[in-house]
Amino acid sequence: MEVIVHSGVLNSANNFTYAFLNEDNILIFDSLVDPDVLAAGWYLSFPTKEQSNNAVKTNKSTQKQYAVAACMSNCNNFFAACDSFSLLHLWKKSEETGHWNELSSRELPRKGQKAIFSNSGSEIIIADRGGNVTSFSATSHDSPGKFLLGHISLIIDLSISHDDKYLVTCDRDGKIRVSCYPNCYNIQSYCLGHQEFVSFVKCISLYDEFVLSSSGDGTIRLWNYFDGTQAKCVKIFEDAELIKECISCDNANLEFFENSGNIAITVEQFRFSIRCLKFCFRYKLFAILFYMQNGIAIYQLPNAAEENFRFIQFISLKSEAADVVFDALGNLLILQQCKDEVTLFFEYKENEKKYLFNNDYNKDLVFNMKAFYGDGEYFMDAKKDFEHLFKSSYEFSDDT
Hints:
Pfam family, one: WD40
Subcellular location: Nucleus
Protein name: tRNA (Guanine-N(7)-)-methyltransferase subunit WDR4
Distance between the termini: 46 Å
Structural class: mainly beta
Number of strands: 28
GO cellular component, one term: nucleus
Radius of gyration: 21 Å
Helix content: under 10%
Number of helices: 5
Keywords: Methyltransferase, Nucleus, Repeat, Transferase, tRNA processing, WD repeat
């Protein structure tokens, strides 16, 4: 799951339930490969302030209400979303009818930035714009939030270990903090090494338990979160195979880079700043979404300590990728910020070990996405507000 602003897609940890978001609605499918399921998705809408009986806050503003963060529980029965009015909404799926019913709307201390469920599904954990993390009960629907931890910088992403014992948070200052959960005042470790903001973290099981991270510095790193040591690092901006394939897709705002004059990384790192990663555990692959490339890079996860991340292919796009998701069969759905072709479907060819474009493979899904997103005008520009995430370096003379 990724940071969702205005529009996007997320899938639950077991890849069975998918939620698509646009500016007005949430569309949920229990499968992306079953035609019967694709013909009958569930639409969720935010209640108004007046309808949110449990929401204490009243906002007379004419501001648009939309999702800023959302998450699905591992059991696929709970869905939570934070909206632009700083409210947390919780829905539950009926076992009898399959309908999604809203359970509560609760006030958040500040507007949400990122939301996840604990693996047990009992808690919703939310990072807000102020650098604080709060947990809300998913079973006691009216209970207020409980403060867990705080950063002095903007928290960009968070993840929880598979045993619910450790909570991992990352921020604009390049720090990854591993806290004991739920007693987050006990810090297990810090994972330090990124030169820029950490855009993504995820607890992942490979040949051992790790934290995987990506950053605006153009690197992907694997960490042992028990002691904070780095296990692997791949410098995407130095990968010759990737650079060769995507040179025509570069859309970096070099004017911003040159005019700033004091960004702490190189122009090559800036070109390959990473927005987030998406996983295909069926084939142990992951997709990289960039800020400055019109395309998606596919890499292989390492299977052993002696292996490293391996480049597979680069999928060129007409415009920036708004979001991507892998279906249960390992195929890839891409939503791009292009009015002529919002939805792209790529089938994975196992014999060739690569993805090939095939919008005829899953016509039902492509049709539904076109109907839901239209010409994609509501997709947020992925680069909007991202430039302020970069740190600046300053030189001081002896006279200062």
